[in-house]
Amino acid sequence: MVTTPRKEKKENKRFAFLHWHKIVLCLMVYDVVAMALSYFFALWIRFDCHMTYIPQAYLQSWLYFTPIYVVISLVVFWKLQLYQSIWRFASYTELEKVILSSAITAVLHTAGITVLFQRMPISYYLIGAGMQFMLVLFIRFAYRFVNLERQSRFKNRRRTKQGRVMLIGAGSAGQMVLRDLHNNAEYDNRVYCIIDDNPNKRGRYIDGVPVVGGRDEILLNVSKYKIQKIFLAIPSATPAQRKEILEICKETNCELKNLPGLSELAEGKVSVSSLKDVNVEDLLGREPVSVNTEEIFSFIAGKTVLITGGGGSIGSELCRQVAQNKPKKLIVFDIYENNAHAIGLELRDRFPELELEVSIGSVRDSRRINQVFEKFKPDIVYHAAAHKHVPLMEDNPCESIKNNAIGTYKTAYAAAMNGCKRFVLISTDKAVNPTNIMGASKRLCEMIIQSFDRKIRDGRVEDLVPIYAHAEGEDQNALKTNLENGKVKTKFVAVRFGNVLGSNGSVIPRFKEQIAKGGPVTVTHPDIIRYFMTIPEAASLVLQAGAYADGGEIFVLDMGSPVKIDTLARNLIRLSGLQPDVDIPIVYSGLRVGEKLYEEKLMSEEGLRTTRNKQIHIGSPIPFDTDAFMEQMPRLMHAAYDGREDIISDLVAEIVPTYHPETVKDADHQAKAYQ
Predict the structure, then answer these.
(1) Which of 577, 581, 635, 538 is nearest to 257 (CA)?
(2) What pTM was computed for the model?
(3) How confident is the model at residue 175 (pLDDT cuts 50, 70, 90)?
């Protein structure tokens, strides 16, 4: 058989004498010498370091047994992988192997030379075994010690250039971060002091770093040690405790890093790389949202779920969380193809087993929305499609009505027509006593789903009629068939919450853009406040509320304490390592038309009922004439589609009694009214 050059090359490569093979041979030669000399020197020491004092019988026994012993010991060392380890990274595991191999070979030497030749002096066995252990251990750990010493000298030379760090937390997580910093030459930081509230740790040292005091001494020690960075490593701290500490830290103008939670500590993954930048969410001090995952799973699993506005901030997060609960099928519906395409790609990557459909269309298009419902027959609908920017909608009131109110009506109608079991509207706290057209349009959405639910409950589904801005389609006949057969059993509910942190176009991304440009940061009013929640929290509570729905409810999510937008802006500036009004100016631009100093979560007429989840409440619906409301909707729709901006606000005020459109001229008056 002729061997090709390529095969010869592969065979040569397979049997190549690598660098580590050379190291193994050198180690073996060293071990042979160490084994032989260890027991020879044991005899020499036993007999007062004089060769002539050593009995000839002992010397011959050592000489004849040594070759046998060396071969046996090399086999033991090989089996215990003393020649396969990378000694540059030697650790306790390698130390255990050296101890075990030395013990085994010592026993074998004692038994072998005694049985085969003669009994030797006890000191021969002890000194020989001990000397062999020290020599074998020394050569294997010598490189590691030399390497660490070299790194230590290198780090000492760089200390003048390193960032000066204060570590908050002297617990397990803090110690892991500290040791990672000390042992890794890649990090350009050095810990100069540690803060911990435990009085038993104060005045003591961890790896040579002093524990200087509790949180009340942060500012003092930042100045004393000229600290540039603060690392918070207390994963067990509650949000309120974390907020209190960070409130002190952000006064220092130091760069802040935060260890997120207990999961890293539980998994033993705590390191400097685990530290993240402190976000504004950490300064809110809110307790984390908790939901019953089993209830959500049983509600969604095996169902076909449609999410309108599925490419938006809330819609996309709803898609992610729904996908985790194993639906039969998930339909993402959005008019903006880029967002829809992006969330579609993400879901296919993360959930390859998910049956996913991405559909493009508008909730204002009756034919399109009906086609989607007729084709996929969703069991659950989360209606998140909406225009939400208050100033923009004030300038385009007809579009607000068309997309939010009329779009919700058409989607709700299509859901009822096609046998949907649950319809969940994503509403907003701006729907409470609205002073702007966007909030009023969302209140109209709530009234629409309440009207639909009331008609179905009262057995008057024939009052539900489709509305068209142009010529009527054939879809009305399909609904009448369902009505006649009594198939409309959709339960309609709304979920109301405030602002979400980081959503598209929200205040925080806007502030970050302004800070990145060097300012100024624009705040409408120094006293304006808002409720905030993270996007994942809001989405999870929406899913939980949907599982609780019985029909007609307006669920209100507990948003915690309100936050001053001015405080939020100042915190973001400080988290960027800058000083508000010094590095970045803050400008108050004045309240915009329709904007309130504060948002209410409920109307004053509405009471609250609790649910099994303390963060989800149910507002008692305000009664209104559903018959009159349903008759007014077509007139409102035609005015919106005709672009009648001159009358649209008056029409909405006529339908929504709580809507009070006004131009905000006296913000101080509103502030006093709130207080």
Answers:
(1) 577
(2) 0.65
(3) confident
